[in-house]
Design a protein that fits this description.
By secondary structure, the chain is mainly alpha-helical. The chain has helices at about 5-25, 30-40, 55-75, 80-110, 115-125, 130-140, 145-155, 160-175, 180-215, 220-240, 245-255, 265-290, 300-320, 330-335, 345-350, 350-355, 360-390, 450-455, 490-500, and strands at about 415-420, 460-465, 470, 485-490. It folds into 2 domains: about 25-390, Na+/H+ antiporter like fold (Up-down Bundle); about 415-500, 2-Layer Sandwich (Alpha-Beta Plaits), CATH 3.30.70. Strands 1-4-2-3 form a 4-stranded antiparallel sheet. The chain starts with a helix and ends in a 5-residue tail after the last helix.
Length: about 500
């Protein structure tokens, strides 16, 4: 094993972790920072690492995508999906198709490329990036309707982009030899990849919950091992059955993330950690893979493609997708601007070379160029644009302390933190806000009549208060103040009644 390579890799990962704080402070998409560090370490600058195999990069990136997309599904809340499923999933499916077609035909006309090649390039660059969108929106929050639409769309649109890219690669490889029956077969295969992936994901999520609930072990590390096993088994099962493994991964994550199972809190942290690591590694790798001086050969085409994508294809796709839904023009404008590009387009840009369709790396270089421009232009202006349009909302304070219920047995209890303001939470009996109230004056039991056993589990307990970054042990005489962060212990149902939408 090359100790030099391991040392450099370790240093780059540590630098990337610290550099990601720049994203938090200045609103720069963290993926752009990872790419920048990779480019700096590459052959055109410090020459610390040299890597030029796109086929290997594609394999590594596909494995990384499993962890990234599972996390996207895992953190997609059912309540948000139900509330905004129509517009979000329309954008994630029809919107991707519309972007591909509009962008493909404009590339064909403006860059004088073959029509099938142009449509493939349009499919590759069509999806938005969940990590980039969520990083910016969660650091500088905006109205829930818009943020949820963008987040769910960005989490759910990658499978469609992947399917369209593979479909176009198949068409290009069989161009001139394909019959009408072949095209019908391609379409049926596309439908099965999507439908089969969803069916396998549903089965995998049910099996996964049973595995966790019946796995009795005091070794907590084995619960994390189970997650990796379920992930790989889900993907490979879909692949063996000729369905789409990426779609199976995303929806398995969604269904698992919205069910209760033993040690879910611990597993959720591990899922997020592996996703962050995968994002970091894939963009460091792609940054090393790119050769900046070759960007000179595609800068003009890259600028044209970025302008067409950002100002024509994406806005038109959003307009067409949201026609059946009640979105104002300002909301549509912001959603169009929020279509940040990231991991998936760059990963998909390695596919044509792996299939022998991009020998001179034109696709990879131009896609990398466009993704970089998208991160720079849209990523850094998204928050100021939201403020200009009046969509920004106050950011909740973050506690320097975390309190969670890690359970190795099935339980309906959980811990939630909530910030006290002058209006929320409010007392479920008097309808008065908790602000300025003593704890003993609060109604901390659910209003519904229940059995004796349910009454026992129907109250909420304030376990700790964070005030001015210090922990206070609460008692009945403690008076709550605006800005306090409370840790509440209770059942999912009782927490939902006290603080709707946050449990």
């Amino acid at each position: 094993m090359n100790s030099y390579l391991l040392l450099i890799a370790g240093i780059l990962i540590i630098l990337s972790a610290f550099a990601s704080r720049i994203s938090t402070r200045f609103g720069i998409p963290v993926l752009l920072i990872f790419m920048g560090i990779g480019i700096l370490a590459g052959p055109d600058f410090l020459n610390l690492l040299h890597f030029d195999s796109q086929e290997t990069a594609s394999t590594i990136a596909n494995i990384a995508l499993m962890f990234i997309l599972f996390d996207s599904g895992f953190n997609t809340k059912k309540a948000n999906l139900h509330a905004f499923a129509g517009p979000s999933l329309t954008l994630a499916t029809f919107g991707i198709l519309a972007t591909t077609l509009i962008l493909g035909f404009l590339i064909h006309i403006l860059l004088d490329q073959d029509i099938l090649f142009s449509l493939m390039l349009g499919a590759i660059i069509s999806s938005t990036d969940a990590a980039a969108v969520m990083t910016v929106l969660r650091e500088r929050p905006i109205q829930k309707k818009i943020s949820s639409t963008l987040e769910i769309e960005s989490a759910a649109n990658d499978p469609m982009a992947i399917l369209l890219t593979l479909f176009m690669i198949n068409l290009i490889q069989n161009a001139g030899n394909a019959t009408a029956g072949d095209y019908v077969f391609f379409v049926l295969q596309l439908i099965w990849q999507f439908a089969g992936g969803i069916l396998i994901a549903f089965a995998a999520s049910k099996i996964g919950v049973k595995i966790y609930n019946h796995f009795k072990s005091e070794n907590l590390g084995l619960f994390y091992v189970l997650y990796i096993g379920i992930l790989f088994a889900t993907y490979s099962s879909a692949d063996l059955l000729k369905a789409n493994g990426i779609i199976a991964i995303f929806f398995a994550g969604y269904w698992l993330g919205n069910q209760r199972f033993v040690f879910k809190r611990g597993v959720s942290h591990f899922v997020s950690a592996l996703s962050s690591f995968a994002n970091m590694c894939v963009f460091l790798l792609l940054g090393i893979l790119v050769v900046p001086h070759l960007m000179i050969n595609v800068w003009w085409e890259g600028i044209i493609l970025a302008i067409v994508l950002i100002f024509i294809a994406r806005p038109l796709a959003v307009l067409l997708s949201l026609l059946p839904f009640k979105y104002k023009w300002k909301e549509q404008t912001f959603i169009a601007w929020g279509g940040l590009k990231g991991a998936v387009p760059v990963v998909l840009a390695t596919y044509p070379a792996a299939y022998g369709l991009d020998p001179d790396n034109f696709v990879f270089n131009i896609v990398f160029f466009v993704v970089t421009l998208s991160c720079l232009i849209q990523g850094t202006t998204l928050s100021p644009f939201a403020k200009t349009l009046g969509f920004s909302v106050p950011k909740n304070r973050h506690s320097p302390y975390f309190m969670e219920l890690f359970s190795l047995a099935q339980t309906n209890f959980e811990v939630m933190d909530v910030q006290i303001t002058e209006t929320v939470p409010y007392d479920i009996k008097t309808q008065k806000p908790w602000h300025k109230s003593k704890i003993k004056e609060l109604t901390l039991k659910r209003t519904q009549e229940a059995t004796e056993e349910k009454n026992e589990n129907s109250s909420v307990v304030i376990t700790a208060i964070v005030r001015n970054k210090k922990i206070i042990s609460p008692n009945g005489e403690t008076r709550l103040k605006s800005g306090d962060i409370l840790f509440l212990l209770g059942t999912h149902e009782s927490l939902e009644e006290f603080v709707p939408g946050q449990s």
